[in-house]
């Protein structure tokens, strides 16, 4: 019945229900699940594990590529299945468990998880749960809409459970380029010189005897939850485009720019959307995730090709992508995330990195993860991989949140994910601050003038003037540095009335 999906006949006797497959799990195991930003995640096993946990205690360390779809993270967290989680998540229920201390969350650069597994710094994966289009005749696993850490989980796991998703078209075969670096210390250089290049295989190699179960599903990925562009994100896009036009005029790049990376989410998606009306052409992407804007740029012809680890689309765009999938096969490459985010390649290609900040301070330090400095939002994701190693590191944010009660530009970031040394450009709807070649004392007035909301500029300037009286390379009034966050907790607004 599934010969086109399970092409090795001997594996047909591994077919079973998700409920039967849960019997392979034991309390305390480390489990690697496919999935990267709501794409390519296992659909049946998470729900079946939740049901099993109702009668049998089951506490797992859960590793993925990035966030899961179908509310799986939250369902498993609420059922007590997830005791430890890494390297990224984006689920409100799981977030509450993390911030209450019930789930131990390890926030990692997305390029590092596979390396730490390979070197034994993390406990080895016991079971890998992988969504697939098909299993090849030699036992290779063809992923669906993401690769993430899947290849590394399969390489390590004693047992592999494959979820064959019938909703994933067979035409996805050929999109993937699976390359796993060799062992240290004699690893060869990764031979990737252009975003379009393919250096690996179309399927994930696995000894067939390690495939312990095959589960059939028929469920699409959860759609992207990125919001459409608005006036503020349109303004941010215009500032970025004007800046890049200046880079072309200065001769630092041509009209094809450098390969683009854009973080997941509404603002980054909207900025890329703005490039549709830009003068740039023959562009390329070397990123983690392709969102709606990437498909729109491919369709417009301005984007020549795109390389990533995941494709995460709205329901409408996903339908269009599947309907026209053959058009994209030679223009999109999906890679393991340790390759899509690898510092060696990011530095080699000269990536233009575009990522979102929760807040940044007057010297250019960026907080991407912790609300109020204490409560985890989603995680650092791959922003650090690209910010530290790209040719240009651009961070974008709306200037205020909570209807103006929170300023995204503060005297001192309450948590620092990206230091001033890794940040080249800051952008809000009010303007853009090019920080390259500037000392901290030169950065502060520029950030305040160009990026802060007008309501907060007087407060920021007053703080900076007071801080300079105390001297220092990076002046601060230490007893006031986090007072804005304390004021918000106490009074519900950072703004001095």
TrEMBL record:
Keywords tagged on the record: Transferase
Residues of the Acetyl-CoA hydrolase/transferase C-terminal domain: 319-463
SUPFAM superfamilies linked to this entry: NagB/RpiA/CoA transferase-like
Coiled coil region boundaries: none
Sequence ranges assigned to domain Acetyl-CoA hydrolase/transferase N-terminal in this UniProt record: 11-215
InterPro entries: AcetylCoA_hyd_C, AcetylCoA_hyd_C_sf, ActCoA_hydro, ActCoA_hydro_N, NagB/RpiA_transferase-like, Succinate_CoA_transferase
Record: active site: 288 (5-glutamyl coenzyme a thioester intermediate)
Residue sites binding CoA per the record: 378, 382, 402
The keyword Transferase is assigned to this record: yes
GO molecular function: acetate CoA-transferase activity; acetyl-CoA hydrolase activity
A Pfam family assignment: AcetylCoA_hydro
GO biological process: acetate metabolic process; acetyl-CoA metabolic process
Family: Belongs to the acetyl-CoA hydrolase/transferase family.
Protein name (Swiss-Prot/TrEMBL): Succinate CoA transferase
């Amino acid at each position: 019945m599934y010969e086109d999906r399970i092409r090795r006949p001997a594996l047909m006797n591994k077919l079973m229900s998700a409920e039967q497959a849960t019997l392979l799990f034991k309390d305390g195991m480390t489990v690697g699940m496919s999935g990267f930003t709501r794409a390519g995640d296992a659909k049946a096993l998470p729900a079946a594990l939740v049901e099993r946990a109702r009668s049998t205690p089951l506490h797992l360390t859960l590793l993925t590529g990035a966030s899961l779809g179908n509310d799986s993270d939250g369902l498993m967290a609420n059922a007590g299945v997830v005791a430890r989680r890494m390297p990224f998540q984006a689920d409100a229920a799981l977030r509450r468990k993390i911030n209450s201390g019930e789930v131990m969350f390890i926030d990692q650069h997305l390029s590092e998880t596979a390396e730490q597994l390979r070197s034994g710094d993390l406990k080895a994966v016991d079971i890998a749960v992988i969504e697939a289009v098909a299993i090849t005749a030699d036992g290779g696993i063809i992923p669906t809409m993401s690769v993430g850490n899947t290849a590394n989980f399969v390489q390590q796991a004693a047992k592999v459970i494959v979820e064959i998703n019938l909703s994933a078209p067979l035409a996805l075969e050929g999109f993937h380029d699976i390359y796993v670096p060799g062992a240290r210390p004699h690893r060869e250089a990764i031979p990737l010189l252009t975003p379009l290049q393919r250096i690996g295989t179309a399927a994930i190699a696995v000894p067939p005897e390690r495939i312990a179960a095959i589960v059939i599903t028929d469920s699409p990925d959860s759609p992207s939850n990125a919001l459409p562009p608005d006036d503020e994100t349109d303004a941010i896009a215009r500032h970025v485009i004007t800046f890049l036009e200046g880079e072309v005029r200065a001769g630092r790049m041509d009209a094809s720019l450098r390969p683009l990376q854009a973080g997941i989410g509404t603002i980054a998606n909207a900025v890329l959307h703005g490039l549709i009306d830009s003068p740039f052409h023959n562009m390329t992407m070397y990123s983690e995730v392709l969102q709606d804007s990437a498909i729109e740029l491919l369709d417009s012809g301005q984007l020549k090709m795109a390389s990533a680890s995941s494709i995460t689309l709205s329901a409408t765009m996903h339908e269009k992508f599947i309907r026209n999938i053959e058009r994209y096969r030679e223009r999109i490459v999906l890679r393991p995330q340790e390759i899509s985010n690898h510092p060696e390649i990011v530095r080699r290609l000269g990536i233009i990195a575009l990522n979102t900040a929760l807040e940044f301070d007057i010297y250019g330090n960026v907080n991407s993860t912790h609300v109020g400095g204490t409560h985890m939002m989603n995680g650092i994701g791959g922003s650090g991989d690209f910010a530290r190693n790209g040719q240009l590191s651009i961070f974008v944010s709306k200037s205020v949140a909570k209807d103006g009660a929170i300023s995204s530009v503060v005297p001192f970031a309450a948590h620092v994910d990206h230091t001033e040394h890794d940040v080249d450009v800051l952008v809000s709807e009010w303007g853009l601050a090019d920080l390259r070649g500037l000392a901290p004392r030169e950065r502060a007035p520029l950030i305040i003038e160009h990026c802060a909301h007008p309501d907060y500029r007087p407060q920021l300037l007053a703080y900076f003037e007071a801080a300079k009286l105390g001297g220092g390379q990076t002046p601060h009034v230490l007893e006031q540095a986090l007072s804005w966050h304390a004021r918000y907790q106490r009074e519900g607004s950072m703004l001095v009335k």
